[in-house]
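Standup notes, protein team

Yesterday: finished cleaning the Grallaria varia set.
Today: TEX30 protein structure.
Blockers: none.

Input for TEX30 protein:
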Amino acid sequence: VKVKIPFGNKYLDAIFSVPEKKPTYGVILTHGAGGDMNFPHLLSLAAYLASHGVLCLRFTCKGLNVAYRAKAFKTVVEYLKLSDDYKLSGVFLAGRSMGSRAAASLIRQLSQDDDDDGFIQGLICLSYPLHRPKLQSKLRDEDLLLIRCPVLFISGSADEMCEKQLLEGVASKMKAPKKIHWIDKANHGMAVKGRTTDNVMEEINMEVFSWLRENVKQEHK
């Protein structure tokens, strides 16, 4: 289902992947610095989640400013929260690369604004860009260290923007419940020599879904 979400004087293009059964929770998904919501990894994840009963709303927001992207993300969250078509008890924010930075930034803002009503239940970071290539001394970890909700990182062990030890070091300092799933030998674009994209995506999709299930279950115990 294609929708246009009002954002300032513009609209954000977005697409719902809707499960057959009425979903109780959803995932909002966005792309990295390049590309848009039709990036193959996002299409694959959205289709997988919808086929497993999870509503997925993915959107395009061009713009290389993290604050601007976070604002767009907030607009999409509000839109979904007020939607009459889908009454959800909660959502998880997910993004690839820069999209995951924007999601982390938004969650940190909301938790500081006391605007946190528990609607956002967690964060999924696909290829979180912890640092620029070869610039390991400047970590983009300030939002991560202040987040309280559960976080899942899926990163390639050969990601040139997220050195393995550095992410594990940041994770050990985080207050939030977190999990890191390493895709062996994958680079920032999740490409692995000798493996097809579909094969890698299957691993990622299954990991995301099983983590979601664990974290939703805990909510409803």
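Follow-up from PR in the comments: The chain has a mean pLDDT of 91.
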